Amino acid sequence: MATVLLVNGAATPPGRLSAAIEFAAESARTAGASADILSLSDTVLDICDGRPDDKYSAATQDAVGRMIAADAVLFGAPVYRASYPGVLKNLLDLAPVKALQVKPVGILAVGGSPHHYLGVESQMKDVLQWFGALVAPTNCYVTGGDFKDGQLASEGARKDLAALVTTLLTLAKLDKASLGPIPLAARYT
Prior knowledge:
alpha/beta, Rossmann fold, two-stranded antiparallel ribbon, 38% helix, globular
């Protein structure tokens, strides 16, 4: 059974992004996968400062270990100043290349309006490609209008997010050994 790690990249208490992540987790379970949710509002990570991996706290090592162990990762991020939050960037900075190398990865962004629909995706793709991640060809962007009573209610948004989860599970079935070359970052670590 494939495991999808769903990262809630918000530093704030649960809200719309949490509801969307919960929906994505249920979509993964419905498709026969295991869903593991890592919420950065509940997980205190050390600041990446270049120390050896084994010198970080147990919570930090656990978060990175869950990313390494997952078969696919869905990163969820609220739009903060036309980008993704620093807590999510910190998690990515803590991760070794092997955590995401040739791993299916999707991006879910939540914004107040459609105005920043590419902000998170375009900026995260650069970082994810540095890892050599297998980034889904299309990602999901939802706005406040897609929610009702705290739940992801828009049929279109639900369909898009379920399709992204299905894409990640499909990509997880690929023979990773046949995909290459290795990312430049892996050659120097």
